[in-house]
Amino acid sequence: MRPLCLFILLMTVGCSRGTVSGELVDYATGEPIAAASITAHSRGWGISNKQLVWDKSYTAGVDTDTAGKFIVSAPGPRFLTLGGTTLSVEATGYQRLAEIRVSGKEPLLLQTVRSVPRTERVPGGIAYIGITESGRPFGWIFAEDRPTLDRRLADIFPLDSVGASAPTVTLAAGERGGLLFLSREEQHIATTSHGMFLRYTDTAPLDGYRPAITIDPRGAGGTIFVRTANNRFAKMAFATPLSTMRGRIAAEGIEEPAAWALSLAFAYNPFPGHSLAYDPGETSGVVDPAIAGAAADLPSQGEPSRGPRRYLIEVVDTSGAVIDSVTVRLVPGIPVDAGDVAQAGYRFGNITLRYGADGLPNVRMSIESRAAVYNTADIIPNSRFAVRTEFHDYSSENKAVRRELRIIEVR
């Protein structure tokens, strides 16, 4: 009874928290969007299952009118809700907006962009850029979705080694690449929302790229556009206040702990073109290094080659030692039987190359040992790094042993 009495007493302090008003428009055209659902969210003290709890969820909703305008009540009792009010927006044919924080009493200008089919969105992920504890800078390779200590391989790389607490952060592009920073103001982003720096500018700018850029981590934030050495494009969310991390990063390629590292959400288009359509609320998935590596080999202009290709195929044991290998030349649509390989007796048969509608090479084969046969699914090789797939063989004692198939294009 006491929790309920306390709650009723607190409620008498005031139930009304006022209203939130604003307008929803199409970001590209500025046209109002009618019949969109606006939901206000808050969390705070309240009664749930006859118990007084501190994290009760309160919501209130309304639809936009024909002029795209709305007025919605801020939900929850005054003085009992924590962290203020946030809005979410859903409109047919448009991306959903979330985590729009309400501050002040001025009307809000909310902007959304049209939804893009999943097949037309670019993949994304989290890039790590920073300095190891021994002072070695590391950057990021978009096509391989991993960090690297080798600046010659990186698409973006830190130039300063003093950490993100410095007055500025300086980043450099890889060889023959470029960087461009568009601030929140330059993108005309009116109201803060989740993923805004990856949402609004969905086409990489044509020019304005520089070898290096310097950014104020205390500013309003913005989007970093990256042009890679082979004329591919990515965008990265540079949100402020800038958050950094220490210790081991959740990515392969850097064994040494980081003294500091930026973790920047990104979207990357491995195919030719400037499109960077991305939905932070419903992504199309993370970068697949096999697809991205092969797509990076496509020419920036003109038709991709659909002719013969040469591949190095290897079988590797758990220690990383190569136990069998063969080099084959494949003509599209004509299976090749590579025969027996001397050392471990593997037989590479029915190796077939075909091209997908996207112009990427697809290779299939069978690997036969004395004890087992493994038929691969389609593998998309490239000339940048070996594509790997695991399979199992059997020893003379009929015990399962792990093997790895590696294939890379040889030029």
In short:
With 411 residues, the protein is mostly beta strands. The protein has helices at residues 2-11, 196-199, 289-295; strands at 19-26, 37-48, 51-63, 69-73, 81-90, 97-101, 108-112, 124-132, 137-141, 146-148, 156-158, 169-173, 178-183, 212-215, 222-227, 233-238, 244-247, 258-269, 309-316, 322-330, 339-340, 347-355, 361-368, 373-375, 387-394, 400-409.
The Cα radius of gyration reads 27 Å
**How many individual helices?**
3
Based on Cα principal axes, name the global outline. Answer: elongated
Oligomer classification: single chain
How are the secondary structure elements laid out?
Elements: H1 2-11, E1 19-26, E2 37-48, E3 51-63, E4 69-73, E5 81-90, E6 97-101, E7 108-112, E8 124-132, E9 137-141, E10 146-148, E11 156-158, E12 169-173, E13 178-183, H2 196-199, E14 212-215, E15 222-227, E16 233-238, E17 244-247, E18 258-269, H3 289-295, E19 309-316, E20 322-330, E21 339-340, E22 347-355, E23 361-368, E24 373-375, E25 387-394, E26 400-409
Parallel strand pairs: 1-7
Antiparallel strand pairs: 1-4, 2-3, 2-5, 5-6, 8-9, 8-18, 9-10, 11-12, 12-14, 13-15, 15-16, 16-18, 17-18, 19-20, 19-26, 21-22, 22-23, 23-24, 25-26
Description:
There is one protein chain. The model is unreliable at 1-14 (pLDDT under 50). By secondary structure, this protein is mainly β. The longest helix has 10 residues, at 2-11. It has helices spanning 2-11, 196-199, 289-295, and strands at 19-26, 37-48, 51-63, 69-73, 81-90, 97-101, 108-112, 124-132, 137-141, 146-148, 156-158, 169-173, 178-183, 212-215, 222-227, 233-238, 244-247, 258-269, 309-316, 322-330, 339-340, 347-355, 361-368, 373-375, 387-394, 400-409. The chain is elongated, with a radius of gyration of 27 Å. The protein is built from 3 helices and 26 strands. Strands 8, 9, 10, 13, 15, 16, 17 and 18 form an 8-stranded antiparallel sheet that branches. Strand 22 (347-355) and strand 23 form a beta hairpin.
